[in-house]
């Protein structure tokens, strides 16, 4: 799977150079030339971000602080000069590294690759592998089958999280509703059957094993 990199700099020549370099090295690229555009493009969930600090409208520090609410990938600041106090501020708002301009593009490429490897190792350690095909990341609240993410609603994942963390234990519809929804939610436990049906439909579409088993008259359980 190709890594996706977001390149942000108000100098279009630098953006063009980096875009060409990373595409030549097998990356999918997204580009932005100002802070506002960077915030919008970050919603595409890149795997890594190269972010210029000194931009005229919204600077890189502010961009980093804003996107850290919904972006967890490594962010590398690009800057012409940097003081220790600036580094401390940058790390405090969510930066992972600094690249000083002018930079060696090959060194930059090596640093990007190193950050991606480190990030991949951290993500893999957060995943629980149930077999050679199924992995659930409880931190990111996502499920993968054969390396592909299966799109789930918040409640669908909540049901999967509850059952998969208690393999073999049977939960009634009422207990699932109590734990995944809450006492103050509108509705009742009858919605559980519909959510289970949707989960099974998504599993079937992905040609997955049906991990949720019905225990007739009692409830549901997760099986290996």
TrEMBL record:
Gene3D superfamilies: 3.40.50.2300, 6.10.250.690, Winged helix-like DNA-binding domain superfamily/Winged helix DNA-binding domain (1.10.10.10). One of its GO terms (biological process) is regulation of DNA-templated transcription. GO terms for molecular function: phosphorelay response regulator activity; transcription cis-regulatory region binding. Pfam families: Response_reg (PF00072), Trans_reg_C (PF00486). The modification 4-aspartylphosphate is found at residue 52. Residues 125-224 form the OmpR/PhoB-type domain. It comes from the Bacteria. CDD domains: REC_OmpR, trans_reg_C. Residues 125-224 bind DNA. GO terms for cellular component: cytosol; protein-DNA complex. Keywords: DNA-binding, Phosphoprotein, Transcription, Transcription regulation, Two-component regulatory system. Residues 4-116 form the Response regulatory domain. May play the central regulatory role in sporulation. It may be an element of the effector pathway responsible for the activation of sporulation genes in response to nutritional stress. Spo0A may act in concert with spo0H (a sigma factor) to control the expression of some genes that are critical to the sporulation process. This is Stage 0 sporulation protein A homolog. The lineage of its organism: Bacteria, Bacillati, Bacillota, Clostridia, Lachnospirales.
């Amino acid at each position: 799977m190709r890594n996706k990199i977001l390149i942000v700099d108000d100098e279009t020549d630098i953006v063009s150079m980096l875009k060409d370099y990373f595409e030549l090295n097998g990356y999918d690229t997204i580009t932005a030339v100002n802070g506002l555009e960077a915030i919008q493009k970050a919603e595409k969930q890149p795997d890594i971000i190269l972010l210029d600090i000194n931009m005229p409208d919204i600077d890189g520090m502010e961009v980093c602080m804003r996107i850290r609410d919904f972006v967890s990938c490594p962010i590398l600041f690009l800057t012409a000069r940097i003081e220790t106090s600036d580094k401390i501020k940058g790390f405090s708002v969510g930066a992972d590294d600094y690249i000083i301009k002018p930079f060696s593009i090959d060194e930059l490429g090596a640093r990007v690759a190193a950050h991606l490897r480190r990030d991949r190792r951290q993500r893999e350690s957060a995943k629980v592998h149930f077999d050679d095909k199924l992995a659930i990341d409880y931190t990111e609240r996502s499920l993968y089958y054969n390396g592909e993410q299966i799109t789930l609603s918040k409640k669908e994942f909540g049901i999967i999280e509850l059952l998969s963390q208690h393999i073999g234990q049977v939960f009634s519809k009422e207990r699932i509703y109590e734990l995944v929804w809450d006492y103050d939610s509108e509705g009742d436990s009858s919605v559980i059957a519909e959510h289970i049906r949707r989960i099974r439909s998504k599993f079937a579409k992905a040609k997955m094993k049906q991990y949720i088993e019905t225990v007739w008259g009692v409830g549901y359980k997760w099986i290996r």
